[in-house]
Amino acid sequence: NRFNLFCFLTLMGSNIVKCVTLQFAVPVAYFKCSCSVSHYRVNIEAEMTKFALYYVGIGVGVLILSYFQIALWVSAAARQIQRIRKMYFRKIMRMEIGWFDCNSIGELNTRISDDINKINNAIADQVSIFIERISTFIFGFMVGFIGGWKLTLVVIAVSPLIGLAAGLMAMAVARLTGRELTAYAKAGAVADEVLSSLRTVAAFGGEHKEAERYDRNLVVAQAWGIKKGAIIGVFQGYLWCIIFLCYALAFWYGSKLVIETKELTPGGLVQVFFGVLMGAMNLGQASPCLEAFASGRAAAKSIFDTIDREPEIDCFSEEGHTLDKVKGDIEFHNVHFNYPSRPEVKILDDLNVVVKAGETTAFVGPSGSGKSTTIQLIQRFYDPKEGMVTLDGHDIRSLNIQWLRSLIGIVEQEPVLFATTIAENIRYGRPGVTMEEIIKAAKQANAYNFIMDLPEKFDTLVGEGGGQMSGGQKQRIAIARALVRNPRILLLDMATSALDNESEAIVQEALDKAQQGRTTISIAHRLSTIRNADVIVGFEHGRAVERGTHSQLLDRKGVYFTLVTLQTQGKDADSDKPEKTAETNFTEEDGFEKVRRFSRGSYESSLRQRSHSQMSNNIPDAISGKFEIHADQFEMEEAEANNKSKGEDKEVIEAAPVARILKYNRPEWPYMLLGSLGAAINGSVNPIYALLFSEILGTFSIQDLDEQRRQINGICILFVSIGVMSFFSQFLQGYSFAKSGELLTRRLRKVGFQAMLKQEIGWFDNPINSPGALTTRLATDASMVQGATGSQIGMIVNSLTNIGASFIIAYYFSWKLSLVVTCFLPLIGLSGVFQAKMLTGFANEDKNALEAAGQVSSEALSNIRTIAGLAKEKHFVSQYEEQLQTPYKGAKKKAHVYGICFAFAQCVIFMAFAASFRYGGYLVSNEGLPYMMVFRVISALVTSATALGRASSFTPDYAKAKIAAAQLFKLLDRVPKISISKTEGQSWDDFKGQIEFKGCRFTYPSRPDIQVLRGLEVSVHPGQTLAFVGSSGCGKSTSVQLLERFYDPNEGQVLIDGRPSASISVPFLRSQIGIVSQEPVLFDCSIAENIQYGDNSRTMSMEEIIEAAKKAYLHDFVMTLPDKYETQVGAQGSQLSRGQKQRIAIARAVVRNPKILLLDEATSALDTESEKVVQAALDEARQGRTCIVIAHRLSTIQSADIIAVMSQGVVIEKGTHEELMARKAAYYKLVTTGAPIS
What segments bear the compositional bias annotation Basic and acidic residues (predicted)? Predict the structure, then answer.
């Protein structure tokens, strides 16, 4: 079903016709010629003219059939690859969320690009060439049987030896290729993870460590690749050795049939020999195709395993019933649950909860108690291991999954937006929604005003992952998306935590209205939300331990009472008086399997993800109403600039010079020299064979039988010697070039990845350098470069030696005849040049298009939970399939160009044969050239023609290799604007940590016309704490990025200990800084390794790791896990709750022992129980360190030595908490009312 049967039969037919006309005609022509040897003086010129005309006709036939042979097969392959890509991506998008827990997103992206390319290589022109070679082998032996069945039968008797070896080789290569691809997929996963988390890598100086981690997987892949090359080399040597031993056997036995039994004539022997010669040579030349097939089969196994796998929860399924009327009663009946990736850790333990229709139920509890897990079970991201979840009394497993999810609206703390317009992002909530409904939802979510202030309004592009929007703007768009859904069930996971106080009240009112008549589950939100809930359920250890209203639970003094008491810091817990202070709010999220809330891609590729600090729970989104408009316009212009740059950056890349590609292979010159020596020997073998064959004919004219037998035996021994020599030379060529090629691939991947890590952060802001595009580039470019080096060099040297030796022999015996044939060579060369030029253009188009498809797949897979919650899997499948149209159309054009050029090159060869026959006849008749010399020249030409045909098939790989190399060299040649080299810049021993922002003006590189900082002036002395407060987008996080030297100011300076930051060594500066962000980024390794990441300059002892964990109040939790500190945290820390992730991030910063500590809402994700102890740990960690705190909870801000209030990129007031409160200006108004300043 996976291949077009009609196309297959058509192509098989065309190959057979070609082989019949071509390979049958050649031996017959020689047979006739040999039969006419005795009377050639009479009519040899006329006979040769007739054969020449035959060859002209055959050439025309070859021209037509070769075109169809290549064009149709390559077109068919393009169709199949298109279908495979679609089927694979479609099946991935159908998989249940648990499958993604066990399969790395990076590995999946690598398989989409790298593995499917290997399948393409296996099923395109390689199949047609293989069929051609095998059919030639078959028909060659058929000709042999017609000429002399006994001799052919003796030769064919050794075929099982070849078949057995080929089978064993194919099995071994397939197994080794599978292991090689698995290692490359793991390397791709590392690259994807690192590039998606680059700010964290840069902040902790992990570039060298990550490059080594990436390289470790490349070393494994390289080892399997070299073993594969050695096996292929042994097989090639064995194959050619057997072939030449066959020749020796055939000649020895054939001579007995001619001389002793008279069963064969010399002409018959010539016919059998040419049949067997052509057959055996083509069998030998078919072996490289077997390597491609084996690699393709190994790659296809993992692809088709996924395609054939049926998801446990199929989101595309039409099965399951729907309810005519939905009330909204949700019940958990004795639910037991553990995540597929961590079966030994029980998350829900006999959970029983009732959520009544139309009521608002709040889930509260400590970190890791299973609150978020319940939301995932309601959405059927997972199914319970025991028990069931019911909707209106129906087990949700019996309901249609698309219909079920359409009933649910979810708003999360870290919303994911997609790289499209605001309107389209809201429209994701419900298909077919009208513009009026979108506007209504935006108004309800308090997003309408800021959207209308943007130049493009609802058509504003939000950037990848919503990166062009501030945190508060993203949240409001996400709320509008949920509201436009008009859901029966509303799930709120800290839905308003990113909003300022003024907006929060309005949006909360909208959510309160939205909750009416709907079943609502709110997870640990602000205190006011929890108080107003109809029912509050307290969670502990995966069970619901208490249930009741706010007042009932306070009276019970259980879990809820403890949390509220901690949160209110000893105030009257039952007071309903509105809090005037910007106090801590209840901001816990958990569930051991954390739902991913933000695009991994957007974290790094967004221009402003961190410069627009996510809104704190306490600071309004706008200190100045005027700035609200300015900030929003700033976002829009950023989006426009991004899109403009996106279009401009799709430049056509000039092909790289081969000399530079070979330069990167220079360390392997001994292997390449040995490989070239082996290739040269292999290339000269066939011309030598042709020369020996012409000597065979001469032995039959010797009258002395003893002398005749001696010469025949001597020629047979020479054949055996050539066979033995071929074994070693073929192995030498195969192994040496495989090793040099694998080493080059590893080197290019490694230096490419290192070059990416050396670029400044601003380079990653460009959408064309998104993690998805870069990982696709790494996976494909380095392996494609082998099309111009590695084993291809061996084949080229082989072909050139073959052609050279053949022409030396030909010119030696008849320069006139050889000169005529040489005139045809430039035509083949021109065909190759034209083909290379055309295919280079197509390679450019394909590359850009596949990178665009890679971005879609990367965005979809990275945000699979959000997409599943919105039931938009089919939308992304359609988007991906649309991106595949460009490479598909390019492949079809390429097929025709390749087919025409290949056919022309093959046709020219036969025209050269025709000319050689006609002119050879003339020379024999008129200039007395011995007919033996014509045979020698033509024998040499047969072998050179085969080599020429083989050389023309290298052109497509060569064209792709030069484009891929050019892309890599462009990256390697780029000089980063901020160097992370340890040798550049100052460093000193007595680092104190004094910081001064002096007249800093700054614009982001992609938007030089938008001023972010407008003369920032603020300083902090060693050991002091500076708190930045202000609106979203006012420049708080931008100042931190300047301090980390992610960017440099355009004007002014950042002074560290009185030295300009631009003059300081970047690795040294960053080694003095520790950072804890609101959204901590963890790596897919163990808890211990994540903590150890805090200091990558040394090997850390386990005692230090444990001590840091204790300081972050993490140790007790870790010790409850089965694997303790060796517990794997999953991709982006997905196996942990947000609170658990945050404590690991704090431990990571503490273990660094930095002189400067940056806290960006460092405790905002912790539950109220943990928050106090962690805050105490942070207060202790601040002792003796310079500390910068961005818009944190009031207690943190109050204790700061300096509080700087920012607006529009400048500090509008600063001082201590008491000083600013006494001044009764911006800060006072902020603290007392939370309202923006007029």
Answer: 571-582
Which of 1012, 421, 1079, 1006 is CA-nearest to residue 765? 1006
Question: Residue 1005, exposed/middle/buried by CB under 10 A (0-12, 13-18, 19+)?
Answer: middle
CA-wise closest residue to 552 among 521, 574, 522 = 574
Look at residue 922 and give its three-state secondary structure.
Answer: helix
For residue range 1076-1095, list pLDDT tens digits in order. 887 778 888 889 999 988 88
Q: In the chain, what are the helix, strand and coil shares in percent, each to the nearest 5?
A: 65, 10, 25
How far is residue 170 CA from its own chain's centroid?
Answer: 28
pTM score above 0.85:
no
Enumerate the H helices of 1162-1234 as residue ranges: 1168-1182, 1194-1198, 1217-1223, 1226-1233
Query: In the numeric block, which tokens belong to residue 1031?
Result: 């609106």
What pLDDT was estimated at residue 971? Answer: 86
Query: Which residue from 211, 213, 212, 220 is spatially nearest to 184, judged by alpha carbons?
Result: 220
Q: How many CB atoms lie within 10 A of CB 1055?
A: 16
The torsion angle over the Cα atoms of residues 804, 809, 814 and 819, rounded to 10 degrees, is -10
| Dihedral angle, C-alpha 360, 361, 362, 368, nearest 10 ° | -140
* CATH no. for 330-573: 3.40.50.300
The predicted pLDDT at position 34 comes to 42
Q: Where do the domains of the chain lie?
A: 330-573, 995-1233
**pLDDT class of 835 with cuts at 50, 70, 90:** low
Residue 438: which pLDDT band, with cuts at 50, 70 and 90? Answer: very high
Note the pLDDT tens digit of each residue in 859-881.
888 888 889 988 889 889 998 98
CA distance linking residue 296 with residue 574, whole number of Å: 68
CB 431 within 8 Å of CB 406: no
Backbone angles phi, psi at 123, to 5 degrees: -110, 5
If phi over 0 gives left and psi between -120 and 50 gives alpha, with beta otherwise, what is residue 23? alpha
Burial (Cβ within 10 Å: 0-12, 13-18, ≥19) of residue 138: middle
Best-predicted range by mean pLDDT (24-33, 196-205, 446-455): 196-205
Q: Distance between CA atoms of 86 and 304, rounded to whole angstroms? A: 12
Provide the β-strand partners of residue 539. Answer: 544
Structure tokens at 188: 């791709």
Give ∠ CA 782-788-791 in degrees, rounded to 5: 90
CATH superfamily, domain 995-1233, is P-loop containing nucleotide triphosphate hydrolases (3.40.50.300)
Two tokens at 277?
């010669």
Letter for the amino acid at 464? Answer: E
